[in-house]
């Protein structure tokens, strides 16, 4: 019973799932159902996720899509991240409206982008659109590729001083000449909605402490598991990759939820069997037929994994939308803290 | 090839080692030897351990003691923590003298103790004696069991303001009425020689970052492994227990050294096989025949483990002396940073 979370591995290397091991993870067949037989999206609260514990059952659509029939007997439950994210965004939207009606304020998110990487531009555009959907005010500082450290810190400190900004994020990666660590150190932990400040990370790691923010992608992964009825406590979880922004916080968060966590990385010799796959990879693949000239795929060989895992998230439509929903949730949390709005 | 680090488990539960698995960890037989055939204590530097990389070979004594002959065929190499710690203390002593001669300053360590737990009193006494041995100035603030939070914070801030104090540690555990987390938050990371501040922990967890201090017990464990010629990179390491002061930082530190780390805790179902044991447990056992009325034992069933592990540390004489040596090393590092003394 291994719950494997596949995170960005080496660039270009797609992770292959060994066949022959199938887990006992709860599948669509034993999803909790209400009296009508309709599936209930269970929503235990995430650490510091300040939104209600009880959620309405999904009206017409389950967060588990039905297994697609195939000659190769696909049995993995496909977790629909986009559906879960939409549910969360709807709830965040109503919280934002309640805040606006109650105190005349809305949460504000500021994004700093350096340069014009097409993947970064896409991510930022998606974040802005999601903010608009739920009523969060958003603003972007677009800096040139060759901007100086001082220009970047200047943008940071002006957002830091702006009381209408409750969350600031620096879109990563930064160009080589800028030291990410030093830039992130300057960001106040109180506005660090990405949760990448070492103080937030330390508080995530330590028992009995609460970070002000949990990094959005790991938070989205755990939220998907919880809402899909996967019990994390006592399960073995293998995290592939140990980056500061995904692998590390995911392992810390799984451990907070009492999983027995193993972290696999470039030095690991024999990665173990898989029964559950959350694919956090996003690799741009050239595709002239698609709107932007490329499309995104995950790190996992989906066609193989879907036949041996007990549940899986697709790319796109899995972790991506959840990450954005968690960013909105973190920004809302931040504004609530500032205004002492409950 | 599992390298298992046994950390404090549940109180009173001694960890039993399943037989039948023996690792391929480097034993006394293949310790590096110099031209005379004498073993060389290898000393790669620990992260932030600011003492020289090359160490003199052990003159007459190896840090590996010879296997004791036994009818039950003990094959585990016993790692002599006390010997390694003495080596390190000798080096720290000469560094302190060099500092005193060079700039007329010595490192200073302040310890705050609340109440009169006999184990805490023993630990503090040992730390003070070790400071005296190497020439580090030490001072203790002994507060009554029922002291208020403000009294404790007062002691902390007076040491914080004292420029001759380069390291402050609050002896844990504190009495129930005092919130450890809140007390440790007040300690400035620059004097946090125990490395328990969340900012130091976050920087320990994150790649590309350096904590100002690494917690002493984990640092001592890794140092023992490195000096015993155990290669950590690529090995599987299982950390039993996930406390903030031992289990968590040990797993983070092993991961920094590129081990594939699994963390086993109360929710874990089937802990795996063992080949290497570092016993970090210290359990006081009533013993009227001993000087203080009790003696210390580890968490591991030593008599069993010594027959199946490839290497093992005893209690006492394993991790304990290393912890103190690392505290001295952290205090020395702190003073060097303050005085920009290299």
TrEMBL record, chains A, B:
Keywords: Hydrolase, Multifunctional enzyme, One-carbon metabolism, Oxidoreductase. Its EC number is 3.5.4.9. Pfam families: THF_DHG_CYH, THF_DHG_CYH_C. One of its GO terms (cellular component) is cytosol. Residues 215-272, 276-337 form the Tetrahydrofolate dehydrogenase/cyclohydrolase NAD(P)-binding domain. Residues 79-194 form the Tetrahydrofolate dehydrogenase/cyclohydrolase catalytic domain. GO terms for biological process: tetrahydrofolate interconversion. It is an enzyme of class 3 (hydrolase). GO terms for molecular function: methenyltetrahydrofolate cyclohydrolase activity; methylenetetrahydrofolate dehydrogenase (NADP+) activity. PANTHER family: BIFUNCTIONAL PROTEIN FOLD 1, MITOCHONDRIAL, C-1-TETRAHYDROFOLATE SYNTHASE, CYTOPLASMIC-RELATED. Homodimer. HAMAP family: THF_DHG_CYH. This is methenyltetrahydrofolate cyclohydrolase.
């Amino acid at each position: 019973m291994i719950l494997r979370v596949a995170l960005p591995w080496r660039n270009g290397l797609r992770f292959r799932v060994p066949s022959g091991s199938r887990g006992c993870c709860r599948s669509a067949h034993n999803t909790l159902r209400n009296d009508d037989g309709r599936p209930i999206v269970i929503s235990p609260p995430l650490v510091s996720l300040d939104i209600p514990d009880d959620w309405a059952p999904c009206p017409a659509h389950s967060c588990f899509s039905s297994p697609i029939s195939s000659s190769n007997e696909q049995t993995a439950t496909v977790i629909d991240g986009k559906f879960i994210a939409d549910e969360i965004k709807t709830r965040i939207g109503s919280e934002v409206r309640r805040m606006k009606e109650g105190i005349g304020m809305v949460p504000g998110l500021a994004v700093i982008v350096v340069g014009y990487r097409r993947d970064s531009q896409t991510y930022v555009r998606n974040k802005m659109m999601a903010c608009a959907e739920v009523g969060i005010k958003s603003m972007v500082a677009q800096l040139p590729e060759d901007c100086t450290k001082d220009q970047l810190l200047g943008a940071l400190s002006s957002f830091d001083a702006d009381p209408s900004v409750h969350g600031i994020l620096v879109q990563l990666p930064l160009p080589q000449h800028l030291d990410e660590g030093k830039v992130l150190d300057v960001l106040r932990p109180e506005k660090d909605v990405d949760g990448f400040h070492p103080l937030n990370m330390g508080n995530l790691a330590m028992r009995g402490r609460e970070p002000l923010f949990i990094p959005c992608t790991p938070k989205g992964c755990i939220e998907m598991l919880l809402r899909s009825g996967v019990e994390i406590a006592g399960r073995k979880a293998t995290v592939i990759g140990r980056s500061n922004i995904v692998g590390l916080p995911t392992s810390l968060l799984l451990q907070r939820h009492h999983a027995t966590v193993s972290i696999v990385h470039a030095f690991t010799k024999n990665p173990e069997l898989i029964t559950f796959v959350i694919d956090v990879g996003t690799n741009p693949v050239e595709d002239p037929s698609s709107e932007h000239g490329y499309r995104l795929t995950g790190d996992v060989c989906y066609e193989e994994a879907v036949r041996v895992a007990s549940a899986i998230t697709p790319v796109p439509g899995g972790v991506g939308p959840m990450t954005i929903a968690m960013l909105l949730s973190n920004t809302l949390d931040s504004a609530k803290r500032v205004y002492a709005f409950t």
